[in-house]
Structure formats: C-alpha cells, structure tokens
Design goal:
This protein is mainly β and 210 residues long. It is built from one helix and 15 strands. 31% of the residues are buried.
Length: 210
C-alpha cells in the first residue's frame, strides 16, 4: 500500500527543527514497615526509574539528544518516543512479526520497532492511505540509506491502529500514539529523522555521523 519513496536530506535545508522533550520518570514511593505496624519514623522515599527508550548505543550510535524528540513541518508534529533495533531473527523481533503479520522482513537484517505520537496541527486532513501514498516521515541511519516501513498484514485494513500502525488519517487537532515497524539492512553511522507535509520539510539529527 505504501510507496517506498526516497526523501533526500537535502530537501530539509534550513527548515530543520531541533526540539527535545524532557525525559519521563516513574516514581516509586516506599513506606517503612516494622512488625506489621507502619514505622512512624520512616519517611516516604521516591526513587526515579528511567524508562529505556532506545538501544542505539548497542550499534555504536551516540545520541546528540535524548528521546523523546519532536519535529514539526507543514502542520504535522511527529514525536519519536521510543526506538528499539533488533536482529530480525531474534526472539523479540520474531514475536512481533508473527503477532502482527509483518511483511517483507525475511531478507532484512534488522527489524526496528518504534513508538510514536503524531498530531495534526494544520487546518486540513493529513493522511497516509490509498488517497495519499507519500510517506510523512523517514528514518535514516547511514546518510541517504533509510529504513522501510513494514506492513502489519493482520490489521493493515484498520485505520489509526494503536498497536501496529499502517494507514492513518488525522483531522485538524487530532493526535495519535501508536507503534510502527521498519526493516533495514544497512550500516549504522548516524540517525536522522525527516518529516514532510504539504511540500514543507523538517528534520532532526538524533545521532551525528561517526
């Protein structure tokens, strides 16, 4: 359904936007207890537990910014919340592939799993469907080498699926959080995200070239 279309980094030009959202922490509150009776002298303590948002360092990639990151262009806002790179033959990748029926993974070295939030801040409908096959964002890892979106065959007909994204449409003011898979077989020398909507491009360097 999706057209695999190259979007060169040169299309971004001076429209590159760099913005980093603060990392989210989970708080764990502990209460001291002795002999089944709460110890009046024990104070509540809060321990910050960081959320694992990526495994980029496993592939030699050193981030310039921490996730989540947001970039906007043409009224479309895209936030990369999480990205995990797996060997396609790994247990985790195969479990996701089988669960959602992802296609085109057999000859690909890597299976990339992302959590994203995107929002329509324009006054018009924005979509990726049979009516508009132009990809709205691309993930680059080695200059102009990009990852291909993988179709979840088991729910490809569902629009705005929150578990495994394929086709989607957002009305003005609408926002969606979902998971999207990609396949890739190239090298990992940098990491650059480009979004493009209505002829306007934006991008962000998450990892600079080695």
């Amino acid at each position: 359904m999706m057209e695999k279309k190259m979007i060169s980094k040169s299309m971004v030009g001076k429209t590159v936007v760099k913005s980093v959202l603060a990392g989210v922490l989970l708080a764990c509150v502990g209460l001291g207890v002795a002999g089944g009776v709460a110890d009046a002298t024990a104070a509540n303590t809060t321990q910050a537990v960081p959320i694992m948002r990526d495994n980029l360092s496993k592939y030699g990639l050193k981030k310039e910014v921490d996730l989540p990151v947001t970039v906007e262009a043409g009224g479309l806002s895209y936030t990369l919340e999480k990205i995990m790179i797996y060997d396609t033959k790994s247990e985790t990748a195969q479990a996701l592939i089988k669960k959602y029926g992802y296609t085109g993974t057999e000859d690909q070295k890597y299976f990339i799993w992302t959590k994203i939030t995107f929002e329509n801040k324009s006054g018009n409908l924005i979509q990726l469907s049979s009516r508009d096959l132009n990809p709205k964002w691309m993930l680059y890892f080695d200059n102009d080498n990009f990852a291909y979106p993988s179709m979840p065959a088991k729910n490809a007909e569902q629009v705005n699926n929150k578990d495994a994204l394929w086709s989607w449409n957002l009305k003005p003011g609408q926002k969606l959080t979902s998971y999207e898979a990609f396949t890739y077989s190239g090298e990992y020398n940098d990491f650059f995200v480009i979004i493009r909507n209505k002829g306007i491009s934006g991008g962000i360097n998450i990892v600079m070239e080695k």
